[in-house]
Write a structure and sequence with these properties.
Largest sheet: 8 strands, parallel, barrel
CATH superfamily of the largest domain: Aldolase class I
Strand content: 15-25%
Radius of gyration: 26 Å
CATH architecture of the largest domain: Alpha-Beta Barrel
Strand order of the largest sheet: 1-4-5-6-7-9-10-11
Helix content: 25-40%
Oligomer: single chain
Number of domains: 2
Shape: elongated
CATH topology of the largest domain: TIM Barrel
Length: 430
């Protein structure tokens, strides 16, 4: 899947699209562009250099809105300065010869939009350029935007089937009513993708953060159009890497605290999950005591051999917590979890990496599976080189029971239950 950055150009500058109300589009406000520069080249350079974007969707709104002018010189300048950046251009379809010249000269892809298409003969003319043509299925609040009488009584899926017959297999499906609204991708767009699994579909409009993109990856969309989420910081370079890593469809954050009880079994379960599910990635988060105990039990090297990211508790604050709010993780597992961490969770204390992760997972509605070590009055637990009897305190058992009242948190008794959760709730994992 590709992260495709969007550049809407109007009156020579980059504007912020919202709900398809083009007359009122305003100049962008962006965190990634230096000196508040709104020129197309400056914004394209920010996408390319700061976010490692490889493909750019450009809508020349001056051409689309028929202002008798266009921004082709500015667009061509982007390609000259950033030759490795692939450009997809929607400049309306007024003149076949101009579009042909653009493709032969500098352009990677030309977009034929249903909104601008005035005659089906253009589809036949462009059939020889089918690999460099992307057909945009333009919707507004679910209704296809077009000017063709032949399509008045046809459904969107019938029209896609007809266009496909001309030899085109690259499509954009975009509801402009959702652009800039942060409402997410509509279900009917996902349904259209399911109806045409053989076609390359790019979609977008309303993307808030990576949580909106994960389902699109799992449905094998070829790309996602992004503008607002890049400019406001909801998506950054790390998320672009994640979007374009087709090997990762699911992610777990796994926290380990300073308990010997179920420690080796937890590592065995991580090993099993990584071996069994090739599209699952697991990041490891260690409390200070968790790191120490892993060393004492001679298990840290085994953890390192998993090839997972390992994060240790090294500071009072934890900026990496932002991954929860940006939707990186489908699940947070804390196994094993000491009575100390359980007490912090129950009483709302978040002063360490793991307790912070548990608190912020709850705040961002990421499901939590927690294996507490102190659940019964008598336990037999693994210590280095031997087994020992453990008698949890009454307060420890009471705190564990209180965890049941926390929303989105489920107590588990064994690390193996994580696999069953994945099968029950992430049905695409098999």
């Amino acid at each position: 899947m590709e992260a495709v950055a969007v550049l809407d150009i109007k009156d020579g500058i980059v504007v912020q699209g919202k709900a398809g109300d083009r007359e009122n589009y305003q100049a962008i406000e962006s965190r990634i562009v230096a000196d508040n520069d709104k020129s197309p080249l400056a914004v394209a350079e920010a996408f390319y250099n700061k976010l490692a974007i490889k493909k750019l969707y450009i809508a020349d709104l001056d051409a689309i809105m028929k202002k008798n002018e266009n921004n082709i010189d500015k667009i061509k300048k982007i390609k000259q300065e950033l030759p490795e950046l692939e450009i997809m251009l929607d400049a309306a379809l007024v003149d076949y010869k101009n579009a042909q010249n653009y493709l032969d000269d500098f352009l990677d892809y030309y977009i034929i939009a249903t909104e601008s298409l005035t005659d089906l003969k253009y589809l036949k003319k462009f059939s020889s350029y089918s690999e460099k043509i992307i057909v945009s299925i333009d919707l507004k609040a679910g209704q296809l935007m077009h000017n063709l009488k032949q399509w008045e009584k046809k459904k969107t899926n019938q029209i896609i089937e007809e266009i496909k017959g001309y030899g085109f297999n690259k499509f954009i499906i975009l509801d402009i009513a959702a652009v800039g609204t942060r409402k997410g991708i509509a279900a009917y767009i996902k349904d259209l993708k399911n109806s045409f699994p053989e076609l390359e579909f790019i979609t977008g409009g309303g993307v808030r953060d990576y949580r909106d993109i994960k389902p699109l990856k799992r449905l094998s969309f070829a790309g996602v159009l992004i503008a607002t989420a890049f400019h406001n910081g909801s998506l950054g370079r790390k998320e672009v890497e994640l979007i374009e890593n087709d090997k990762v469809l699911y992610k777990i954050a796994w926290c380990i605290t300073g308990a010997g009880h179920f420690l080796e079994e937890s590592i065995e379960q991580i090993e099993r999950l990584k071996s069994k599910f090739e599209n699952l990635e697991i990041d490891i988060y260690l409390s200070k005591a968790g790191f120490e105990v892993l060393k004492i039990y001679k298990l840290y090297n085994r953890l390192e051999e998993l090839g997972s990211e390992i994060h240790k508790d090294s500071a009072a604050s934890a900026p990496i917590m932002g991954r929860l709010y940006k939707g990186h993780y489908d699940l947070l597992v804390s196994s094993p979890t000491t009575s100390n961490t359980v007490a912090k969770v129950v009483h709302g204390i978040s002063d360490s990496l793991v307790s912070n992760f548990l608190a912020h997972a709850a705040k961002s509605k990421v499901p939590i599976l927690l294996l507490a070590t102190d659940t019964e009055e008598e336990l037999v637990s693994a210590a280095p080189n031997k087994m020992v009897d453990v008698y949890p305190r009454e307060i420890d058992i009471k705190n564990t029971k209180k965890l049941k009242s926390i929303k989105n948190l489920d107590l588990i008794s064994y690390p193996e239950e994580v696999e069953q959760w994945l099968k029950n709730y992430l049905l695409q994992v098999n």
